[in-house]
Amino acid sequence: MSESRAIDTPNHEFNEVIQGKIVPFEKLAVDNLKSVRLTITADLGQAAMLVREVLDLKQGSIVPLDKVAGEMTDIYVNGIPLAKGEVVVIADSLHVRVGEIFGVAASEKEAEDE
């Protein structure tokens, strides 16, 4: 039969884990997030095409989209819907003017404008 021996181990103190409580040194300030890079995309439209039409595409081909110039488009941050905006052309470049931010109440918008 094997013989039990006591093993001498060092004592260690563990922090108490409390649901929903953040230990002060683990807090993250909003300022820490200001340099995080995000991907912003705007949905300029979609098109349904047959395979033969796609195979016939060449440099200079025009693909008609389902959106009209000046129509509101969806804006996404890392694939998550953020806002609606209007596509505008400034100095031969496409830009999106933000018109409506999702989840912002009308009273909050008015407070931001003041």
Question: What's the gist of this structure?
Answer:
11% of the residues lie in helices and 25% in strands. It is of the alpha+beta class and 114 residues long.
Can you give a write-up of this model?
This protein has 114 residues and is α+β, with helices and mostly antiparallel strands. The protein has a domain at 40-113: Surface presentation of antigens (SPOA) (Roll), CATH 2.30.330. It is 11% helix and 25% strand. It is elongated. The model has no long low-confidence stretch (mean pLDDT 81).
Jot down its keywords:
Surface presentation of antigens (SPOA); about 110 residues; about 10% helix; four-stranded antiparallel β-sheet; alpha+beta
Map the helices and strands.
Blueprint: E1 40-42, H1 51-55, E2 72-77, E3 80-90, E4 93-101, H2 106-113
Antiparallel strand pairs: 1-2, 2-3, 3-4
Q: Helix-strand pattern, N to C? A: EHEEEH
Strand order of the largest sheet: 1-2-3-4
Helix count, per DSSP?
2
- Number of E strands: 4
Query: N-to-C terminal Cα separation, in Å?
Result: 83 Å
| Whole-angstrom Rg | 28 Å
**SS-derived structural category:** alpha+beta
Q: Give the full name of the CATH homologous superfamily of the domain at 40-113.
A: SpoA-like
Residues in β-strands, percent: 25-35%
Summarize model confidence as the mean pLDDT.
Answer: 81
**CATH architecture call of the domain at 40-113:** Roll
Low-confidence stretches: none
Shape: elongated
> Might you state the CATH topology name of the domain at 40-113?
Surface presentation of antigens (SPOA)
The CATH class name of the domain at 40-113 reads Mainly Beta
What can be said about the biggest beta sheet?
A: 4 strands, antiparallel
Q: What percent of the residues sit in helical stretches (DSSP H or I)?
A: 10-25%
